[in-house]
Amino acid sequence: MPVILFDELGGQQGVRKLVESFYPKVLKDPLLAPLFPKDISTTMDKQEMFLSQFFGGPDLYTSEFGHPRMRARHMPFKITPIHADAWLSCMSQALEETVDSELIREAVIERLRVSAYFFVNS
């Protein structure tokens, strides 16, 4: 049986917990914080929807907003490899706080690493 990360993260509740742990770290990061709005609640909701389907859960993001087109959505922002590293660091910290299994944390980061560097545009 293939591992479905959505289930391993604890389903919708687990993904929400991850997002709630992640964004305070992003907002404290001097490199990442300027890329996000002060009111992060809408961003958090969209991230939860996206990560749910990205990790094999329900297609919440697509059903509400259509195809994610994530690279295009990130183009207005200058994103360097250093930004990708910082984003992954925040996510790693959030995973350590919310996911007990080291194997699942590593699998999630590996899956997200591809995306993080895909958004690099500078």
Give structural notes.
- The chain has helices at residues 5-8, 11-28, 41-54, 60-65, 70-74, 81-98, 102-118.
- The chain is mainly α.
- The mean pLDDT is 94.
- It has one domain: Globins (Globin-like, Orthogonal Bundle).
- Helix 2 (11-28) crosses helix 3 (41-54), helix 2 packs across helix 6 (81-98) and helix 6 (81-98) runs antiparallel to helix 7.
- The protein contains seven helices and no strands.
For the sheet with most strands, the description reads: none
Along the chain, the helix and strand elements come as: HHHHHHH
Query: Distance between termini?
Result: 39 Å
Radius of gyration: 14 Å
Arithmetic mean pLDDT: 94
CATH class: Mainly Alpha
Per the principal axes of the C-alpha atoms, what is the gross shape?
globular
Helix-strand category: mainly alpha
Residue stretches low in confidence (pLDDT < 50, at least 5 long) are none
Helix percentage: 55-70%
- Structural domain tally: 1
Count of helical segments?
A: 7
Beta strands, count: 0
Strand portion:
under 5%
Looking at the overall shape, the CATH architecture is Orthogonal Bundle
Which fold does the CATH topology refer to? Globin-like
Name given to the CATH homologous superfamily: Globins
